[in-house]
UniProtKB/TrEMBL annotation:
<protein>
    <recommendedName>
        <fullName>Phosphoribosylformylglycinamidine cyclo-ligase</fullName>
        <ecNumber>6.3.3.1</ecNumber>
    </recommendedName>
</protein>
<dbReference type="GO" id="GO:0046084">
    <property type="term" value="P:adenine biosynthetic process"/>
</dbReference>
<keyword id="KW-0436">Ligase</keyword>
<dbReference type="InterPro" id="IPR010918">
    <property type="entry name" value="PurM-like_C_dom"/>
</dbReference>
<dbReference type="Pfam" id="PF02769">
    <property type="entry name" value="AIRS_C"/>
</dbReference>
<dbReference type="InterPro" id="IPR004733">
    <property type="entry name" value="PurM_cligase"/>
</dbReference>
<comment type="similarity">
    <text>Belongs to the AIR synthase family.</text>
</comment>
<keyword id="KW-0963">Cytoplasm</keyword>
<dbReference type="GO" id="GO:0005524">
    <property type="term" value="F:ATP binding"/>
</dbReference>
<comment type="pathway">
    <text>Purine metabolism; IMP biosynthesis via de novo pathway; 5-amino-1-(5-phospho-D-ribosyl)imidazole from N(2)-formyl-N(1)-(5-phospho-D-ribosyl)glycinamide: step 2/2.</text>
</comment>
<keyword id="KW-0067">ATP-binding</keyword>
<dbReference type="InterPro" id="IPR016188">
    <property type="entry name" value="PurM-like_N"/>
</dbReference>
<dbReference type="GO" id="GO:0004637">
    <property type="term" value="F:phosphoribosylamine-glycine ligase activity"/>
</dbReference>
<dbReference type="Pfam" id="PF00586">
    <property type="entry name" value="AIRS"/>
</dbReference>
<dbReference type="GO" id="GO:0006189">
    <property type="term" value="P:'de novo' IMP biosynthetic process"/>
</dbReference>
<dbReference type="GO" id="GO:0004641">
    <property type="term" value="F:phosphoribosylformylglycinamidine cyclo-ligase activity"/>
</dbReference>
<keyword id="KW-0658">Purine biosynthesis</keyword>
Length: 331
């Protein structure tokens, strides 16, 4: 008798994976979730909003996964997956409310899949949203055995009159940068080309470990700031670095003037640049130590930085806004 297992798909391993995943997802349950994992769809009740707008974003982890495979460390890239999505929708003032993930592989290992979702659940806990569903696809012959892909999407909500869309940004507003935790999840194809040996020493540990540092999630500190200050624009510094992402907060024609010496560049990014990458390309590929940017009025700068400090976030005044093309000018 021919079974599905003969084709390379192990249903029993899938059942074991779901069993392990449910334990991690349970950590993320928040008010509003109406059902658990296992239904055909996840349900979430919005609750008391006057004029809610749904904000969504989707992303993956990219080739950072290759380093996780080689290090056999799978419990952090799920944080990256959540972070890349929730940090994006946060830019419009939205509070993330739920997340769904998608994991694909050639041959399913329930323990590896559970570690991936463990990271996803940790990212959801950090961002205050619920993991309400997902999909694990075993596709023998399509993905190499031992390799996985992970992606997901986040859904958030914001009152319509609280949407941040850059329309209130004015000339001479100030840009505040909040520190990153490293490269986050961007530019890893270049990193893997420049650093083929992930076991080499870097500050007393394997450089692969440093490169797997999870993307920082900015949701909780930013949502607190939005309750206290008039934040006029926000940017998640992701793929494309400063040049592509900071201008995305502008609705009108403004230029972001950035003082590149106003903040500290992480050692891992200094090391990458030392391997032959020119400075402009670094700023067009990596966050260079600034993972999230706020645009505020001059009068609020010191108070916003101080408030972030109270929440354990290091922030800098990194530049200002002037009339011009939607671009970045580094000084």
């Amino acid at each position: 008798m021919v079974t599905y297992k003969d084709s390379g798909v192990n249903i029993e391993e899938g059942y074991e994976s779901v069993k392990l995943i449910k334990n991690h997802a349970a950590r993320t349950m928040i008010p509003g979730v109406l059902n658990g994992l296992g239904s055909f769809a996840g349900m979430f009740e919005l609750g008391q909003y006057k004029n809610p707008v749904i904000v969504s974003g989707t992303d993956g982890v990219g080739t950072k996964l290759e380093i996780a495979f080689k290090m056999k460390k799978y419990d952090t890239v799920g944080i990256d997956c959540v972070a890349m999505c929730v940090n994006d929708i946060l830019c419009h003032g939205a509070k993330p409310i739920f997340f769904l993930d998608y994991i694909a592989c050639g041959k399913l290992d329930a323990k590896v899949a559970a570690d991936l979702v463990k990271g996803v659940s940790e990212g959801c806990v950090q961002s205050g949203c619920a993991l309400i569903g997902g999909e694990t696809a075993e596709m023998p012959g399509f993905y190499p055995e031992g390799e996985y892909d992970i992606a997901g999407f986040a859904v958030g909500v914001v009152e319509k009159d609280k949407i941040i869309d850059g329309s209130k940004i004015e000339e001479d507003n100030v840009l505040i940068g909040i520190t990153s935790s490293g490269p986050h999840s961007n530019g890893y194809s270049l990193i893997r080309k420049l650093i083929p040996d992930i076991n080499k020493d870097f500050g007393g540990k394997k450089i692969g470990e440093a490169l797997l540092t999870p993307t920082k999630i900015y949701v909780k500190p930013i949502l607190e700031l939005l309750q206290k200050f008039d934040i006029k624009g926000m940017a998640h510094v992701t793929g494309g670095g400063f040049y592509e992402n900071i201008p995305r907060m502008f609705k009108d024609d403004f230029t972001a003037v950035i003082d590149k010496n106003s903040f500290e560049v992480p050692e891992i990014l200094k090391y990458i640049m030392s391997l032959g990458v020119e400075e402009k390309h670094m700023f067009n590929t990596y966050n260079m130590g600034i993972g999230f940017v706020l645009c505020v009025d001059k009068k609020d700068v010191e108070d916003v930085i101080a408030e972030l400090g109270k929440m354990g976030e290091k922030a800098y005044k990194i530049g200002y806004v002037k009339k011009g093309e939607k671009e970045v000018c580094l000084k």
